[in-house]
Write a structure and sequence with these properties.
It is a single chain. By secondary structure, the chain is of the alpha+beta class. It has one domain: 7,8-Dihydro-6-hydroxymethylpterin-pyrophosphokinase HPPK (Alpha-Beta Plaits, 2-Layer Sandwich). Helices cover 32% and strands 21% of the residues. Strands 1, 2, 3, 4, 5 and 6 form a six-stranded antiparallel sheet that branches. The longest helix has 14 residues. The relative contact order is 0.19.
Length: 172
């Protein structure tokens, strides 16, 4: 067996975000977790629920979000395909960018992998360092996390958030 094959079969540590702002938000997130578990991912940590205003239009329904720390044996592309399948199973429809949705699954950090700008999948998630609903639950479950590309620790990233973003998030 080649060294590459051995590396591909090693467990990957992944941080995944799940959000919902339509329907029974908590139930949607719990169903997404159930479907992930059916795909043989191991949950290492699960954050509390966090409620935030919808962005960019705060008049739309509020979001409920969590961050999961997972162990899996998938490639980033395979995991992304699973996430998209789960979103579809839970009733997510094609809609305009940032439209309300029953479920949104985002790969935040895939085993510290950094992909090129023109890759089919952006890793780490390209906007995660600016989002309170990612940083605060991520800090809850991984206090020493460092952004794989920017090499900035999570406490520093949180301190760079606007005050309104810190005040507007609620742990549930």
């Amino acid at each position: 067996m080649k060294k590459q094959d051995i590396l591909e079969n090693q467990a990957k540590i992944v941080f995944l975000g799940i959000g919902s702002n339509l329907g029974l938000r908590k139930r949607n997130i719990e169903k997404a977790k159930f479907f992930l578990a059916e795909h043989n991912v191991d949950f290492l940590s699960v954050s509390s629920y966090y409620e935030t205003l919808s962005w960019p239009d705060p008049r739309k329904p509020k979001f409920l979000n969590i961050i999961l720390k997972l162990k899996c044996y998938y490639s980033p592309q395979e995991l992304l395909k699973i996430c998209k399948s789960i979103e579809t199973q839970l009733g997510r429809k094609k809609a305009k960018k940032n439209a309300p949705r029953k479920c949104d699954l985002d790969i935040i950090d895939f085993d510290k992998l950094v992909t090129k700008k023109n890759a089919k999948i952006n890793l780490p998630h390209k906007m995660m360092h600016k989002r309170n609903f990612v940083l605060l639950p991520l800090f809850e479950i991984q206090k020493n996390w460092i952004h794989p590309d920017k090499q900035i620790d999570i406490k520093s990233l949180i301190s760079l958030l606007p005050d309104r973003d810190i005040r507007s998030i609620k742990q549930i």
